[in-house]
Amino acid sequence: MASKVEWETELETALSRAKAEKKNVLLDFFNPG
Amino acid sequence: MDAVTYPDNNVINFMQGRVIPVRVPYDHKPLSEKFNVKWTPTLITLDSEGKESHRTVGFLGPDELIPSLLLGIGKAYFESGRFQEAISAFNEILTGYPKSHSAPEAIYLRGVSLYKSTKDPKPLRGAYDKLSAEYSDSEWAKRAYPYRLIE
What we know:
The complex is a heterodimer of chains A (about 35) and B (about 150). With about 35 residues, chain A is an alpha+beta fold. Chain A has 1 helix and 1 strand, in the order αβ. The longest helix of chain A is centred in the middle third of the chain and has 11 residues, at about 10-20. By secondary structure, chain B is mostly helical. Chain B has helices spanning about 10-20, 30-35, 60-80, 85-95, 105-120, 120-135, 140-145, and strands at about 20-25, 40-45, 50-55. A two-stranded antiparallel ribbon of chain B has the order 2-3. In chain B, helix 3 runs antiparallel to helix 4, helix 3 runs parallel beside helix 5 and helix 4 runs antiparallel to helix 5 (about 105-120). Chain B is globular and about 50 Å long. The interface of A and B includes residues 3, 6, 14, 17 and 25 of A. Strand 1 of chain A pairs parallel with strand 1 (about 20-25) of chain B.
């Protein structure tokens, strides 16, 4: 079990994983401060 | 989000199991313009083709983020015509997070999904009945108002 959220940093990578794993993508636009 | 929501164990487990999380700065080019982002946090659910199904702006605690993500998942299924999977996602919200802000929309869209998959209009009336009884102040109760006429 992961101890923290493991974020992708590239949308294209996330979409490729989403297709392979049959999941949706959560795209978070955040303020890095 | 980083201090409260994302470190929550239920959130971690849900996100690792049910979505592919990707994070970019609010001024990312070209994504911030492509998705018309004006404030943070902006959270967008996409299907695997990159089509947006749901969006929120502003902080969400753990008990709101998870049902919001389920709503996004359900809406993605709904928009692709996969109504049984959509109904399953909406039911997860109503079972696990009935007090969340996502619940009224889930009731409405569950009714529509049941109607579209069966052509039986009674679930639309059922959605109105539940919304008017339990979420009468929600905008979704108002949107379901015409369904009160269904016998």
